[in-house]
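Propose amino acids for all 199 sites.
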C-alpha cells in the first residue's frame, strides 16, 4: 500500500487519524447484543491499496477497554484502561459548549486528550468504505455508516470553534510521527451507526 491523504471534506490533507469511540451498543445480524458498552481508541492511516482506485483506512493500533476485543479482528488491539468525561453546557436556544476529557492507559504508555469547543449544528453523512489491518494487509472489513458530524476545527474549511485543546501521547512506536504532526481537523460525531461486513 502507498501513503495517501484525505482528498476532500473537513479533514482534507490528513493522512493519520486518532479516533475516540464510546460504543453504546453492538448487535449481531439477528439484533442480539454482543456485549456491554465499551470504549476504544483507534490509530488509522490513509493508504491506497495496490490496484485500487480510491484510498482506504488502515488500522495500525487499537486501545480497547474490553478484554474480549483483544487482539481483535485487526490483530493489533491492546487492553487499556480508558476513562471519558463529557460535559455539555447550554442555555435557552444556544447550541452550547462541550468539554471532553479522555485518558487512556496501556501497560507502559498512555494518551490524554482534553478539548473544549463551541457546539454547532451537525451534518448527516451516509457512506461506505473498506478498513484494512496493518498486521495482515489482505484482511479488511466493509463499513457502511450513518452518522452526524460536527466540524469543530478544519484547516481546509477555515473553521475553528476550539477554545482549549491539549493532546499528550507517550507512545514510543509513534514518537517520531507525533513529534512532527500538524493538527488538520477535529470532528465530533454525536451519533454514529455502523454496519460491518466481511468480504
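Proposal:
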Amino acid at each position: 500500500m502507498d501513503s495517501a491523504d484525505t482528498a476532500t471534506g473537513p479533514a482534507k490533507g490528513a493522512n493519520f487519524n486518532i479516533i475516540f469511540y464510546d460504543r453504546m451498543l453492538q448487535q449481531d445480524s439477528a439484533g442480539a447484543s454482543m456485549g456491554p458498552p465499551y470504549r476504544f481508541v483507534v490509530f488509522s492511516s490513509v493508504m491506497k491499496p495496490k490496484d485500487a482506485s480510491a484510498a482506504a483506512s488502515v488500522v495500525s493500533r487499537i486501545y480497547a477497554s474490553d478484554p474480549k476485543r483483544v487482539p481483535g479482528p485487526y490483530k493489533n488491539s491492546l487492553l487499556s484502561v480508558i476513562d471519558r468525561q463529557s460535559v455539555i453546557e447550554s442555555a435557552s436556544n444556544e447550541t452550547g459548549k462541550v468539554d471532553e476529557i479522555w485518558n487512556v492507559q496501556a501497560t507502559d504508555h498512555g494518551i490524554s486528550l482534553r478539548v473544549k469547543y463551541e457546539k454547532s449544528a451537525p451534518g448527516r453523512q451516509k457512506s461506505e468504505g473498506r478498513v484494512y489491518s496493518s498486521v495482515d494487509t489482505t484482511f479488511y472489513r466493509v463499513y457502511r455508516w450513518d452518522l452526524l458530524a460536527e466540524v469543530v476545527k478544519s484547516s481546509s474549511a477555515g473553521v475553528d470553534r476550539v477554545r482549549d485543546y491539549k493532546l499528550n501521547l507517550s507512545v514510543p512506536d509513534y514518537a517520531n510521527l507525533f513529534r512532527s504532526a500538524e493538527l488538520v481537523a477535529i470532528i465530533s460525531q454525536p451519533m454514529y451507526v455502523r454496519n460491518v461486513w466481511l468480504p
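The helical segments are 175-179. The two ends are 18 Å apart (CA to CA).
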